[in-house]
Structures are given as C-alpha cells and as structure tokens.
Specification:
By secondary structure, this protein is of the alpha/beta class. The protein folds into two domains: 217 residues, 3-Layer(aba) Sandwich (Rossmann fold); 113 residues, Rossmann fold. Helices cover 41% and strands 20% of the residues. The chain has twelve helices and 15 strands. The strands form three sheets. Strands 2, 3, 4, 5, 6, 7, 8 and 13 form an eight-stranded mixed β-sheet that branches. Strand 7, helix 6 and strand 8 form a beta-alpha-beta unit. The longest helix is centred in the middle third of the chain and has 21 residues.
C-alpha cells in the first residue's frame, strides 16, 4: 500500500489524474483552483504529457473535446465563472458522447463574487451544465483523500458511459492540506472502438459529431442517452450514512459542510438527540432512494449548504415532501459553524417534543 503524503486538495486532484492515465490538460488560471493548473504545468512535460494554458476557458474546453474524440483521457479545471464559460463546450462533449473530466473548485457568486468557498454551482452541475437535455456525472468530495479517489473514479465512469464527469469541490477542499494515499497507477481498459484514431483503411471512418439535422435521428440519440442515464442512476449512485441507525433527524450535506455537520452530530448525540447524516457523494445521480427510505424513519431533514438552498429542493423531491426539510446555509464565502448546525438540530428536536 502506498504511503500517506501531505497534499493540498488541488494538487491531489492533479496527481490522481496523472495516475489515472490523464496526459492531456487544458486550462486557464482562476482562484481557487489555480494550483491544479500549476501542478500540471510542472508535471506534464516531465512525463511526456501535454499542458496548455489556453487563451480562454472556451478554448480550453474545446481542446478537451478534440483530445477526448481520440479516446485519450483529457481534463480541464476551473472555478465557477470559468465553468460557466465552458458550458457550451461541455454540452458539445455530452452531445458527441465523449468522456472527459471537468474539475470545478467553486467560489462565491453570482458574477465575479469572491474567491472564498461556495457550493452555489449545485444547480449548474446537476441540471446539466449547458444547453439541451443532458447530464454529467457529478462527484462531491469531502476530504483530500476523496479529492484523489473521486478524480480517478470520475475518469472511469466517464469512459464507461461515454459522457463528461465533473468533480464538484469547494474552495476549502481545494486549499486544504491533509494526508492522502494516492491511487495506484492504472492503464485504462475501456473500449475506444468509437474514437477517431486513423483507420489505416482497415475499418469504417468514425465520426465525432453532435449535429443531427433530422428530428427523428436527434430524438433517437437523446432517448438512447437517457437510457444510459437510467442505468447510471441504478448502478452508480454513491452516498455515505453516518449514525443513521436510529436517527429521527437526518442531516443532508456534502463537501466542507458535511464535515462541519459531522462535528455537530457527534455533539448532539452526546446530548441525547438522535440525529444522523446522509452525505451524497454523487450529486448526479442523487441518492433519491436512500433519502426516500429515510423519510419513513426520521421526522425532519436538515440541508446544510453553502448556497441559498439548492440541494434542499432535491431532498424535497427525493422524499416526495413526506417530511419537512429545514435549511442551514451561509453564502458569500461564509461557512456555518458546528454550533449553528447544532442549534438547528436542537430546534428540530424541540419540535418533536
């Protein structure tokens, strides 16, 4: 087993991507993810890879499109405003059924907002970051270890289902340093028979395209894509349960707010309050089934987020509004304290008495 090394979250993403076989990185600097690009700029030339700081975020995502069409593992990273600029290209990747990794280390918004941590891109990521009917696989790490592990997993899932994947972190996760065991190096075993690699006149030409002018053909492509999405929702949904065995209050949170919530839950348990947490690891697909089943056990849900309540809507949809969903949130780069979350837990417990 590999030894633990102390790494910043952004650097763990970059190193894990390299170990997962990524040799092509295209990006543009923006806080708080710039360390991903900086790490790649130093490492890629030494291992025969490609690092290119594009002239814009729009150029970077289209370079990813080009490399992805050859079946090679490619990635880009940015923060919220930069991801918004990439959305057209992400839609093109989805429309052409191309695997790629997009890393979003979120900052506050809207607009330029601020460089402090946020989770306000939840809707952008989970509803399909771009025009048209599509999804990307969205993974939300809550530790530096998961920054590395989920980077590798994102590449694997993207290739397995031929679609983009997004690692959705917040600025705290990107800047935090923790011990991490890096994934073992691996070679991809995916089928790339669809890729544009040159035919040597030995096979039919592959065409990478997202333009379908015949309505019936475009409809067929969309229906096929959503059949894949159904499979992903059944087989690839990830979440973690914490102290949920006898819980009557369920916290739902991801990223840095899940870590804050865990501390509040431990303190609440010391005070005799039966509270637990379901932490979504995949934000799309969202753990609807786990939450729906929990709604038969608990009396109240509490969504803890760094936005104005975006995930709260998905919780309400998942549980079919069977139980109330309260919100604990901070925005603008502020992070709720364990005491704020504990106060909400106590308030919910008081309503049960």
């Amino acid at each position: 087993m590999s030894e633990k090394v102390l790494m910043k979250g952004n650097e763990a993403i970059a190193e894990a991507a390299i170990l997962a076989g990524c040799r092509h990185y295209f990006g543009y600097p923006i806080t708080p993810q710039t360390e991903v690009a900086a790490y790649m700029s130093k490492k890629m030339p030494k291992i025969g890879g490609t690092f290119l700081q594009a002239e814009s975020e729009i150029a970077a995502i289209n370079m990813v499109y080009g490399v992805a069409s050859t079946g090679k593992r490619a990635m880009t990273s940015s923060s919220s405003p930069g991801i918004a600029l990439k959305c057209e290209g992400i839609s093109y990747l989805a429309g052409a059924d191309l695997p790629a990794l997009i890393v979003n280390v979120q900052r506050g918004g809207p607009g330029l907002g601020g460089i402090q941590p946020s989770q306000s891109d939840y809707f952008l990521a989970t509803r399909g970051p771009g025009h048209g009917d599509f999804h990307v696989i969205v993974l939300a790490p809550s530790s530096v270890q998961e920054m590395a592990d989920l980077t590798a997993k994102a590449f694997d899932l993207a290739e397995k289902y031929r679609m983009p994947a997004m690692l959705l972190a917040d600025g705290t996760m990107g800047q935090m340093m923790e011990p991490v065991v890096l994934p073992e190096p691996k070679e991809t075993q995916a089928d790339h028979s669809w890729a544009v690699t040159g035919t040597k006149m030995e096979r039919e030409h592959n065409i990478i395209n997202s333009l379908y002018l015949q309505p019936a053909e475009l409809e067929e492509k969309n229906l096929e894509r959503f059949k894949r999405y159904e499979t992903i929702e059944k087989e690839e949904c990830l979440w973690e349960e914490f102290m949920m065995e006898d819980a009557k209050i369920c916290i739902v949170s991801c990223g840095i707010t899940a870590r804050v919530s865990r501390n509040a839950i431990v303190e609440a348990r010391k005070q005799g309050i039966k509270v637990g947490m379901i932490r979504p690891i995949t934000l799309w697909p969202f753990p609807k089934k786990a939450l729906f089943e929990a709604a038969d056990q608990v009396n109240t849900f509490i969504s803890v987020e760094l936005n104005m309540g975006q995930m709260k809507e998905d919780i309400e949809l998942a549980i079919r509004c069977k139980k109330p969903v309260e919100l604990v949130s901070r925005v603008g780069g502020m992070i709720p304290s364990p005491e704020e979350v504990l106060a909400a837990i106590k308030a919910a417990a008081g309503k049960e008495e």
